[in-house]
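REVIEWER CHECKLIST
Item 1: Sequence provided? yes
Item 2: Single chain? yes
Item 3: Sequence as submitted:
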Amino acid sequence: MPRFPFASSCQRDVALLANFGPVVEKGSRDEALLARVCWDKLPRHIAIIMDGNGRWAGARGRPRVAGHRAGVEAVRAAVDTGARLGLGALTLYAFSTENWKRPRMEVDALMRMLKRYLRSELDEIKAQNIRFQTIGRTEVLPESVRREIERAATTTAENRGMVLSVALNYGGRAEIAHACRAAVRRLQKEGLAPDGITEENIEQELYTTGLPELDLLVRTSGEMRISNFLLWQAAYSEIYVTETLWPDFRRTQMLEAVIEFQRRDRRFGGLKLVANAQ
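Item 4: Structure as written out by the authors:
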């Protein structure tokens, strides 16, 4: 039996594969992984919990901030790979509502790195037809950060490729509470009773409204938890955990996650009919 039972029905998209020609070396592991990707079964939306920066730095006797700096290259690799795969959306967990508890020096450094990333990568994001946005309560971020966010979002607003969402000052529970309040206000404005609220009403008020359903949630560093990230959206997503620390995450690990996703039997709580079942 073949290792990947879907291989016989897998579509090979020459155009999409050609997207990787300039960046993947012949004979490399990435080339071998790309040959195993089933292009008609790609996840529409991947989200990543970018964990392990502190441990990466600690293992090298360096301050935590060094791990965050090293993680920027992993962000570039994930964004580039997602765009070349033709994903509908990629969402990165950059700064949670709980991260404000970290030392002030570390928080300030994270904000500076975010600004530098947006400035240095904006041209590449535009060139790859990526639309940039943030999710979370960004109104409390420093004004200089908000200016860079607004500039990036405005500059890429007309792009029609992958949507890159960066979660900043984000918490999954807070998002659900926000969505519920907004849904109730909308119903009351329409003269309807809050008792009639539905899941669809809430989904329309989530930060991720308009994005494809979350298919794959990736966590780096081997930790087995989702850390208050996309709690509603992850209800039926596949979860993939890699031992790789975020600063070491590259195209190889992204492709491995996609291939593992394609091996999963997704039933969404139901059962698949078996041919000739009695």
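Item 5: Key structural point noted by reviewer: Strands lie at 45-49, 89-96, 131-135, 163-170, 216-219, 238-241.
Item 6: Recommendation: ____
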